[in-house]
Specification:
Elements (H helix, E strand, L loop, with lengths): L7 E5 L3 H12 L3 E5 L13 E3 L6 H10 L2 E4 L6 H8 L8 H7 L2 H10 L7 E4 L2 H7 L7 E5 L9 E4 L2 H10 L6 E5 L3 E11 L5 E3 L3 E6 L2 E7 L5 H17 L4 E10 L3 E8 L9 H4 L4 H10 L12 E7 L11 H4 L4 E5 L10 E8 L3 H17 L9
Parallel strand pairs: 1-2, 1-4, 2-3
Antiparallel strand pairs: 5-8, 6-7, 6-8, 9-10, 9-11, 9-13, 11-12, 12-15, 13-14, 15-17, 16-17
The protein binds adenosine-5'-diphosphate (ADP) and magnesium ion (MG).
């Protein structure tokens, strides 16, 4: 069953991902209902209707169930009870089962390991006593990650020894349930972004290369500068995961690359992903249009990339003194500015991004680093800029 334009789509969550979904859907002629408790939800302006209510609000969920042809989510923390209720009335894509696995690091990592997908050695911590007995089973240093509601490196602690892990787990409120995971020597981080439709059609974008700073994505280089063999190994794993989950929608899989091209899965996102924002400016079908297509049961669009690109995240830190000097961005003819309409530029908050296009990934990276440095120094001048 497919939903044609001129029907209404629903989305749980109205942050920047919901905003870009709503923008894509409305461009294609759909109406969009956004459910988000934030009165300043970035998606609200792009939505036909903003339901400003909690994600488990029965009335709001009923309006979504009755008013929408299909419903999706922009974030993995949507309550599974809400998705299950909606699924009794309308297609919900991705399914509440897939979202439930992705929203809990213990379930997610256990799912990968049990199905033979490679992950870093980890221990699931449901209670402290059990962990104390098993703490030595993995190597240290390690990272403790809270199992739920962590993002952008939040709720994570590096520990050097099992003893330190026990201290952190017993003193940080709300950290358990958690995973304790061996710190692996990263050579590179990459992500695979794919879409899968209800009839099993799969579309893959070029593999992306990601650089993080302080646990937050800093920039994405696309296509990743890796060997073809590594790229096809990563995409094969990602497609197998999507098949295994009978996944419908856009799915991102983050990988660590260690040693000589060894792949470890870090995590998955059951939605469009920050590292896929380059698709907005340089792919025939971007990740948000594809999300609409998969949600509606339409054929997937071409993921062909027209030019290499680098995406730079703009965090609230850039606003410390004053709004960044945007004229520097506009002076660069191959740069595309995206701002998410967020009122408060807090440090670490994703306020927008810039995509830089070029004839090669290396050239795009050079331009991006120059532009980023100029924005950070706020000088308004770039050395040797044309
Ligand atoms: N086991 C690990 N070894 C080395 N680096 C890691 C490990 N786990 C996380 N990191 C670093 O921290 C970043 C954020 O961790 P991640 O688990 O993806 O959390 P989040 O859900 O907050 O994105 C990763 O992209 C990586 O750079
Ligand atoms: Mg991550």
């Amino acid at each position: 069953m497919s939903s044609s334009p001129a029907t209404t789509l629903g989305v749980l969550g109205g942050g920047q991902l919901g905003r870009m979904f709503a923008s894509a859907a409305r461009t294609m002629g759909y109406d969009v209902i956004v459910l988000d408790p934030d009165p300043y939800s970035p998606a609200a302006h792009f939505a036909t209707t903003h339901l400003c209510a909690p994600y488990d609000d029965p009335l709001a969920l009923e309006r979504l169930a009755m008013g929408c042809a299909a419903v999706t989510t922009e974030f993995e923390n949507a309550p599974s009870s809400a998705l299950e209720y909606l699924a009794q009335h309308v297609p919900v894509r991705p399914s509440s089962e897939a979202v439930a696995i992705a929203q809990d690091r213990i379930r997610e990592k256990t799912f990968f390991r049990d199905h033979g997908f490679p992950v870093a050695p980890f221990l699931a911590v449901e209670n402290l006593e059990e962990f104390q007995q098993r703490a030595h089973e993995i190597k240290y240093p390690a990272i403790i990650k809270t199992a739920r509601f962590g993002y952008d490196g939040k709720g994570q602690f590096r520990v050097e020894t099992p003893e330190e892990a026990v201290i952190v787990l017993s003193t940080q409120p709300g950290l358990i349930p958690a995973v304790v995971e061996t710190l692996v020597p990263l050579r590179l981080e990459i992500s695979v972004l794919l879409a899968r439709s209800p009839n099993g059609q799969t579309a893959l974008w070029p593999v992306a290369e990601n650089r993080h700073q302080g646990g937050i994505l800093d920039l994405t280089i696309a296509p990743a500068r890796i060997r073809d063999e590594l790229a096809s190994r990563a995409t094969r794993i990602a497609v197998e995961i999507a098949e295994r989950l009978q996944y419908v929608g856009v799915l991102a899989i983050e990988f660590f690359v260690t040693g000589i091209d060894t792949l470890l899965i870090n995590e998955m996102a059951p939605r469009p992903h920050n590292s896929g924002h380059f698709t907005l400016d340089t792919c025939i079908t971007n990740q948000f249009e594809q999300q609409v297509r998969a949600l509606c049961g339409l054929p997937l669009g071409s993921t062909e990339m027209m030019k290499p690109a680098v995406m730079i995240n703009l965090l609230g830190d850039l606003w410390q003194k004053a709004p960044p000097p945007w004229e520097i961005v506009f002076q660069e003819p191959d740069a595309k500015l995206h701002l998410y309409g967020k009122k408060e530029p807090r440090p670490g908050r994703k306020m927008g991004h810039i995509t830089l296009l070029a004839n090669s990934a290396n050239e795009a990276l050079e331009k991006a680093l120059r532009l980023k440095a100029a924005l950070e120094s706020g000088s308004g001048k770039r050395n040797g800029a044309s």
